[in-house]
Design brief:
The chain is of the alpha/beta class and about 425 residues long. The protein folds into two domains: about 210 residues, no CATH class; about 170 residues, 3-Layer(aba) Sandwich (Rossmann fold). The chain is built from twelve helices and eleven strands. A hairpin with a 5-residue loop joins strand 2 and strand 3. It is elongated.
Length: about 425
């Protein structure tokens, strides 16, 4: 029998004694970002609707870069993450930061910027997002913006207050490195560094909203429900189309109109025909003022479009006098006795991008210019008094938000980004 050199000793206690020497693995450690995303895909008990955030996050390209302090999002829904900064956070904080950035995209904070100061707008949007995430059980890093108005204000309303105050609250803790997470692509993005156009930003927002609707529907099938703010947004996005605001406004104006004998001026579109005025009873609104909120909460395109619709509706109940008033926190411009049928003489609509206090602007109007009917086009984020500033005026508020005025008639006007 051949001999075996260095035979392996065998004992009863250990039939085969193997080497205990460990080999060094070259596999890299799992980053906290990867671990957080895996946890988001599964969901955790205390963080509500996490799988919804993860599903939407999958539609957002992730860019690893040290050009941002911690994280940021751009108008094309690219989310920028600083790997080193993420390693300094807890896994729960990483999940909270990712959900925070996704919220910016879902709520369309880029299309809603509308020329406002980016830093002030970022503060307002962060305050609302952080309040909602905290209520949903998420953990955020120390020092993030925590403003109690985040639970009671819209982004636009909080921005208006910050604009009026003129300064932002001082940062605390790590807030200095967490602010400014609404960013333009050239600041940190590789590849396509061109900033998004307004149309591209709107398209990116609508794409993310569709992804959000699908994610909520999937979560409802799996868990039966979603968290409060997400449920409200889902309800808003999937609600049946409302009655067009123009029809509501038309019915309101016709109901206000008095059917009195009136010598109305001829329509210039019919100037080539013979025109004989008569005292046939026609609906009349008397002196009408169309007040436009030009603070920037409604875009110039939306203002111009809505103004055209409102002036067109007045054909069915022609006013004896028509004024056009533009205001923010003051009376910006008052054009008296305009001819709504002559586009060449209609004054342009300025947009000032400031705060809003429409009643303060109304107080500047002289007694002879106070109308019988005032049609106000605004987002509704303006201070109100208990009684109308013009007691004898009938107010109709056309709101681009769901807010209602404490007096007069409020009509919602859906906006393109909501």
């Amino acid at each position: 029998m051949p001999t075996v050199s260095n035979p392996i000793p065998v004992t009863k206690e250990s039939p085969m004694k193997m080497s205990t020497k460990r080999t060094t693995s070259t596999r890299p450690a799992t980053s906290k970002l990867d671990r957080a995303m895996a946890q988001m895909a599964i969901g955790t008990p205390n963080e509500q609707s996490m799988r919804v955030f993860f599903s939407v996050l999958c539609q957002c390209p992730l860019v690893l870069t040290d050009a941002v302090p911690i994280a940021a999002i751009d108008a094309k829904n690219r989310i920028y993450c600083n790997p080193a900064a993420f390693e300094s956070l807890t896994p729960a904080e990483v999940r909270g930061v990712l959900a925070h950035e996704v919220f910016h995209g879902i709520f369309g904070h880029f299309p809603r910027l509308q020329g406002r100061d980016p830093q002030r707008w970022n503060y307002a949007t962060d305050a609302i997002i952080n309040a909602q995430l905290t209520d949903m059980g998420y953990t955020l890093p120390d020092g993030v913006i925590r403003d109690p108005r985040g639970r009671t204000h819209t982004e636009e309303a909080l921005y208006a207050e910050l604009e009026q105050a003129g300064t932002l609250p001082p940062p605390t803790g790590r807030a200095e490195s967490l602010k400014g997470d609404l960013t333009d692509a050239p600041a940190c993005g590789p590849g396509d560094d061109a900033p998004a156009t307004p149309a591209e930003a709107q398209q990116a927002h609508e794409t993310l909203q569709r992804a959000f609707v699908r994610a909520v529907q999937q979560e409802q099938r799996m868990a039966g429900t979603v968290a409060g703010p997400l449920a409200q947004l889902y309800a808003d996005l999937t609600a049946p189309p409302p009655v067009p605001w123009r029809d509501l406004l038309n019915d309101c104006l016709l109901g206000m109109a008095a059917h009195d004998a009136s010598w109305t001026r001829p329509n210039k579109r019919l100037r080539r025909f013979a025109y004989l005025p008569s005292t046939q009873a026609q609906p009349s609104l008397g002196h009408v003022t169309v007040l436009l909120d030009v603070s920037g909460s409604i875009s110039h395109a939306e203002l111009s479009d809505a103004r055209g619709h409102i002036l067109g509706l007045l054909d069915q109940c022609p006013p004896a006098r028509l004024d056009l008033l533009t205001a923010d926190t003051r009376l910006v411009q008052l054009d008296r006795d305009i001819d709504r049928h002559d586009p060449d003489t209609l004054p342009p609509t300025p947009v000032t991008h400031g705060g809003t206090h429409l009643e303060a602007a109304m107080a500047e109007v002289e007694a002879d210019d106070i109308p019988d009917v005032c049609i106000v086009l605004t987002d509704g984020c303006t201070p109100y008094s208990d009684t109308p500033p013009w007691p004898d005026t009938r107010f109709v508020w056309v709101m681009s938000t769901t807010q209602t005025a404490p007096y007069g008639t409020s009509i919602p006007m859906p906006r393109s980004h909501t």
